[in-house]
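FAQ

Q: What does a record look like?
A: Structure on top, sequence underneath. For example:
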């Protein structure tokens, strides 16, 4: 039998190690440094700043995946991807039919509301004597 290396929420209930906290502090520091650097070097070409930002983001995500919370999040994302593959999506014909039913119901509901609005407008005009 194949055994998966899964990290559950039960594993994360243990007190986080100082190494884990240091990683999160370093992540926050890198993000703040990136924001400050992007603001300070605003006169440099946008493409260059974007490239550095993407590299910084990749480094931050790499470090975050080394933490307990990052591993739990990655495990969740992989599980969500597996579940998405199990979804039975409607065919094009089913989608078109459902869309047409919704459009028809919106038209009918708007006509009914317009009719009530017109009826109340005339009724209030008759009650107040302002038959404008």
């Amino acid at each position: 039998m194949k055994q998966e290396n899964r990290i559950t929420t039960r594993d994360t209930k243990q007190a986080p190690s100082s190494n884990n906290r240091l990683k999160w502090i370093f992540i926050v520091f890198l993000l703040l440094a990136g924001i400050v650097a992007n603001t300070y070097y605003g006169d440099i070409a946008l493409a260059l700043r974007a490239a550095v930002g993407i590299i910084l983001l990749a480094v931050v995500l790499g470090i975050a995946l080394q933490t307990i919370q990052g591993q739990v999040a990655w495990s969740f994302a992989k599980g969500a991807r597996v579940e998405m593959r199990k979804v039975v999506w409607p065919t094009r014909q089913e989608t078109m039919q459902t869309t047409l039913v919704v459009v028809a119901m919106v038209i009918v509901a708007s006509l009914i509301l317009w009719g009530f609005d017109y009826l109340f407008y005339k009724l209030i005009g008759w009650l107040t004597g302002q038959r404008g």
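Q: Is there anything notable about this one?
A: The chain has a mean pLDDT of 88.
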